[in-house]
Fold this sequence. Notes:
Elements: H1 2-27, H2 30-44, H3 46-67, H4 78-82, H5 86-118, H6 124-137, H7 143-153, H8 158-167, H9 171-174, H10 180-204, H11 208-216, H12 221-249, H13 253-259, H14 266-274, H15 282-316
Amino acid sequence: MPDTLTAEREGQPHRAAPAAQPAAAGAAPAAPRWRLRAAVNALGTLPYFLFIGVFLVVPVIVTTAKAFIGAEGEFTLANFAALGEAQYRNAFMNSINLSLVTSVIGAIVGLVLGWALINLRGPAWLDRCVTSLAAVASQMGGPPLAYAFIAFIGAQGILTVWLRELFGFELNQVIPVSSFWGIVLAYLYFQIPLMTILSIPALQGVRREWLDGGMSLGAGRARILFTVTLPILAPSLVGGFLLLFANAFSGYAAAYAMAGSGANLVPILIGFFLSGNVLVNQGLASALITGMVAIMLVAMGLRSLLLKRATRWSAGS
């Protein structure tokens, strides 16, 4: 018997060894297959990055380089120095003021609307309807938006005529559609829904345990709101504010359709330089674009940093 067992053990290694080899052989190609799958997946993003590179990165680089070139092809900083002139300085200030006003109002009202939607106890269709409308309105802009406001609050708009006939009140004289506040009203049409869409995911991350824990320690709702909830939500909310700022700062079509060249804004000035068959001053136009891109990059860079912090809070909660 021992001889038989010994004989079987002696034979087993010849069977066991081949059985272990396929497992080892199957594990070895796993890494190459994973790398191949990752490479194939990465190829799916190639059209996007190719599009961004051709239509965004390359034009920005070329435009920035042109801002340093003078009329005779020489290196110069005169184009950037010209941005300090009153007309261009005012254009940047007007664009910044317009962006700040619409971003602050849009962020506050949009946050309140997002909070209301989160806590809505009404029918589900109302939540879906408001959310869908906000998603559509946040992407609306340009001439259709300008036409809607001109038709509503313009000199012969529906609301203007109605107020004039009923109360003798001239709305167009109080808020001309081509004025700063007229453009602010138009921009709020897409700024508020955009902030609503951005704030809903952050508000959904608020835990009931935070409120219960604070109240169990004797804190009131207001104290919990200002010492716990808002500090945690601050990165997401400030990031949304910065996105609204960049969105308003780069707006062109709606403001131009409402005010024409009378609106002294950076995008409209750039459009003035680049429109038509003849470029008035390529270097100055490039300097304007470079200044606008720099402000946009700062806003988006700060938003990216804040989103990383908000992600850490979400991952840790």
